[in-house]
Amino acid sequence: MKRPTKIIRRTIVALAAVSTLAAIPAGVSRAAEYSLKDFVILVDDQLIMKGIANIECCQGAAVSARGDIGSRNSIRLGGVGRTEVPDGAPVLQDVAVIAPNVTLNSFAAVSEVIYDNATGSYTVKGSGIVQPLAGNIHTDLGNNYLNDTGSKNLPDFPSFPSLIAGTDDIVVPSKGNVPIIPGTYRDLIIGSNATVNLSCGTYNFRRIIANTASRYQIVFEDCGTQINVKEFVRFAHYGSFNPTAKHDVTLYVGGYDGPYSGANKNKNGVARTIGTFPAAFEYDGAGEFHATLVYVKNGTINIGGPASTAFSTHWFGDSFQEVTGQAITLRHPGEICDCFSTATPCGCIESFSLNKTTGILKVCGRNLNRKTVGCLAAFSPTQACSIGGAICLDRYVFDLTFDEDGSCLTAYPDFAILASGIYYLGIVAPIAPDTENTPHVCVYTNYPLIIP
Fold this sequence. Notes:
It contains 1 helix and 34 strands. By secondary structure, it is mainly β.
């Protein structure tokens, strides 16, 4: 995937994690330590991404959340199109592909592999493969379901709720706009171009079905919503789940892959010894999808494309596969800001541009105000930050002003100090007044700010 050189970037979303992830202590997950919040994808059985696909995630030591993908059995990458873990591999590093059995097919590009050479394998076959740089292939996955020779564990999943379903369906008509209060229902059936409004609380369904490809939306409030589904979920093309990226939205699905008497129109899930059946969860793409986590305990997560924006969530469950062969981008939900250990909303960068004539840097995003932004800074590619931002070298702080609505800020780089070259923008959070601890530093490293 060709990386852009203009002073622009794609829309980015940062979401807070629910309490099950918030309780996990912050830390960098390396070969000797795995943390649940570091995984964009973690499954028990099979993880298959054929491409075109990219993982966008946290990078380096400036943040404490990563963007690993993992399986307790096998991972297969590439074979159809470019598949990068992470986007920019192997130059961008510190993001791992972790499984007992790892296979890189044609067009796969990865920065780090951790596999199990005692009972598993690392296989490279095909053309156009970019393997990790020297020292980034590790042969001892450690203690897992297949091998008990080491001490390194893939993390347990969060607790799974009890699943119940009611007797009454909710049918949202075509082009309808329906609010639903928390409660227990049978099926949620979403018509074409319809809008479903969910509020704070817990919802229980037997099934959620949006069979018609259309611009339907499932919209949330910013106060915490949990959705429990007993059997299966289908989201057809062009629809959006949480398009406004509200925090603390979780989706749990308990069903197995299966036809459910013909009601499940999803594509088949992963192949198993007992056969191949329609997946327990499917999102066909071409819309927006943002959540804290999606946990499909017993079945396959099918994800399709193309992705009009990156799909931001933690994907947990039995298996995961890309099903359309069209471009998808999966993003760690805490990419810009580490929101796992605090309820305070983070300031999140969504776009930036530099006026070469006036020298003014315009930065826009979400929740940009003096409570979330201590300062805006630029970091050289060789910058070094300890976890939490206690030490940062080559940091250039800008004078800035805030827009009243918190959507943008204007910065004024000092070009006498900031020489021509490539830099990465970052938000430095304010020092907490109660503790006076050094604030965390969130550096976005996927696309650079280029100073002419």
